[in-house]
Amino acid sequence: GAGVSQSPRYKVAKRGQDVALRCDPISGHVSLFWYQQALGQGPEFLTYFQNEAQLDKSGLPSDRFFAERPEGSVSTLKIQRTQQEDSAVYLCASSFRRVAGYEQYFGPGTRLTVT
Amino acid sequence: GIQVEQSPPDLILQEGANSTLRCNFSDSVNNLQWFHQNPWGQLINLFYIPSGTKQNGRLSATTVATERYSLLYISSSQTTDSGVYFCAVNETSGSRLTFGEGTQLTVNP
């Protein structure tokens, strides 16, 4: 079946602009995660949803970052007033089970460049 | 939080060689995954292996949870094996994956 999809694949924003990144998880997957990957590093956790509930947002780096999943399927990560340090690849992952410890599957990512 | 260390950070092989990548973690986990990140940035699931041994073609993995480490074996390496290999764990107290810094593998023809 279809994997996790993300759009856009590439985004260039001028400093101060708002951006919205979309994630379509695997159909039926309850859990959805957002990660940020800086160049040359491993992905780092941003936030976690179980259905429409945001259960953990402790990894969001500032209040400029906001995520939602209103109907428990598609999720949007919004970054307001983008800064150069926001340049990174944003990865979305989904998992079938609601219980922690189940296999996560990743999308291709959105590469954000802030100029 | 949990710490994840991967070694070696870089590895260069000739095609056909075998290799072992290691992942150490600092606390109990209920999930351990190995990924291959290809040149386009896609994270490809290799193994879901919180404990035990699994094999998939030329790749195999072993996790010894009581000793807090996992090994990824690549046999008869091919140029298409090049890329970054990540180990990621899910500690028992949470849902997030914590990644290591990765091993950059280059396989030369």
Q: How is this structure best summarized?
A:
The complex is a heterodimer of chains A (115) and B (109). Chain A is mostly beta strands and 115 residues long.
Quote the beta fraction of chain A. Answer: over 45%
From the spread of the alpha carbons, the general shape of chain A counts as globular
Biggest protein-protein contact in the assembly? A-B, 25 and 25 residues
Q: Shape of chain B, please? A: globular
User: Are there runs of chain B of 5+ residues with pLDDT below 50, and where?
Assistant: none
The tally of strands of chain B reads: 11
Structure annotation, total helices of chain B: 0
Termini Cα gap of chain B? 40 Å
Q: Roughly how much helix do the residues of chain A carry, as a percent range?
A: under 10%
Beta-strand content of chain B: over 45%
Mean pLDDT of chain B: 95
Structure overview:
The complex is a heterodimer of chains A (115) and B (109). With 115 residues, chain A is mainly β. Chain A has strands spanning 5-7, 10-13, 19-24, 31-37, 44-50, 53-56, 65-68, 75-79, 88-95, 105-106, 110-114. Chain A is 0% helix and 48% strand. The model of chain B has no long low-confidence stretch (mean pLDDT 95). Chain B has strands spanning 4-7, 10-14, 19-25, 29-37, 43-48, 52-56, 59-64, 69-74, 83-91, 98-99, 103-108. Chain B is mostly beta strands and 109 residues long. Classes of the chains: A mainly beta (115), B mainly beta (109). At the A-B interface, strand 4, strand 5, strand 9 and strand 10 of A face strand 4, strand 5, strand 9 and strand 10 of B.
Index terms:
heterodimer; A: 115 residues; mainly beta; seven-stranded mixed β-sheet; four-stranded antiparallel β-sheet; 0% helix; 48% strand; globular; B: 109 residues; six-stranded mixed β-sheet; five-stranded antiparallel β-sheet; 11 strands; 60% strand
